[in-house]
Specification:
The complex is a heterodimer of chains A (112) and B (112). Chain A is 0% helix and 51% strand. Chain A is built from no helices and 11 strands. In chain A, the strands form 2 sheets. In chain A, strands 2, 4, 5, 6, 9, 10 and 11 form a 7-stranded mixed sheet that branches. Chain A has a 4-stranded antiparallel sheet with strand order 1-3-8-7, with no helix packed on it. By secondary structure, chain B is mainly β. Chain B is 0% helix and 46% strand. Chain B has no helices and 9 strands. In chain B, strands 1-9-8-3-4 form a 5-stranded mixed sheet, with no helix packed on it. Chain B has a 4-stranded antiparallel sheet with strand order 2-7-6-5, with no helix packed on it. Chain B starts with 8 loop residues before the first strand and ends with a strand. The chains are: A mainly beta (112), B mainly beta (112). The interface between A and B is medium-sized, with 26 and 24 residues.
């Protein structure tokens, strides 16, 4: 089954404690991206990757890092989380043409 | 990518057709119209996309006006499970930037 898998689904952490949210896809897609969703602000892109070792900033990259060492994985790293990064995060992937994007089930992060 | 305008909310009786409009008056010739939906806080789900011809799949139909400045997503027989936020997005089919720009969408409430 084609899917994008994020882990964990829920996470509560404290300010400043580094964390990683993993994302993996099984469709051999070139493009992967991370979004955050906040009430009233909708979905905003954080980072995206066009292929292995190729990443670029989206609209709201501050406070986040990503890596793309393998085609299937695209982890989101928060080196020093702050309360304003409390949000619902989604990972997405799609093929190299304008085909449909597949989204993960989301990670609800709370930073206290 | 062109900007879209959608009504913030709509209601539809179960079993009836739901017609969700979208205005994209600044759409460019190489931009497609995509529709996604988000049920509660799940990951967005692809529904359909098109360039200028009407399209139909197992989920919905997409009607694009001849001047391409607006479109309508039709759910032919809405069910309670179709209650969701529906997003209309326009973007180029190819290109290096893999960004879906989500607006605020239309919240569709299907009622008994």
């Amino acid at each position: 089954e084609a899917q994008v898998t994020q882990n964990p689904r829920y996470l509560i952490t404290v300010t400043g404690k580094k964390l990683t949210v993993t994302c993996s896809q099984n469709m051999n897609h070139e493009y992967m991206s991370w979004y955050r969703q906040d009430p009233g602000l909708g979905l905003r892109q954080i980072y995206y990757s066009m292929n292995v070792e190729v990443t670029d900033k989206g609209d709201v990259p501050e406070g986040y890092k990503v890596s793309r060492k393998e085609k299937r994985n695209f982890p989101l790293i928060l080196e020093s989380p702050s309360p304003n990064q409390t949000s619902l995060y989604f990972c997405a992937s799609r093929g190299d043409q304008g085909t449909e994007a597949f989204f993960g089930q989301g990670t609800r992060l709370t930073v206290v | 990518d062109a900007k879209t305008t959608q009504p913030p909310s709509m209601d539809c009786a179960e079993g009836r057709a739901a017609n969700l409009p979208c205005n994209h008056s600044t759409i460019s010739g190489n931009e497609y119209v995509y529709w996604y939906r988000q049920i509660h806080s799940q990951g967005p789900q692809y529904i359909i996309h098109g360039l200028k011809n009407n399209e139909t799949n197992e989920m919905a139909s997409l009607i694009i006006t001849e001047d391409r400045k607006s479109s309508t997503l039709i759910l032919p027989h809405a069910t309670l499970r179709d209650t969701a936020v529906y997003y209309c997005i326009v973007r180029a089919y190819t290109g290096t930037a893999s960004k879906l720009t989500f607006g605020t969408g239309t919240r569709l409430q299907v009622t008994l």
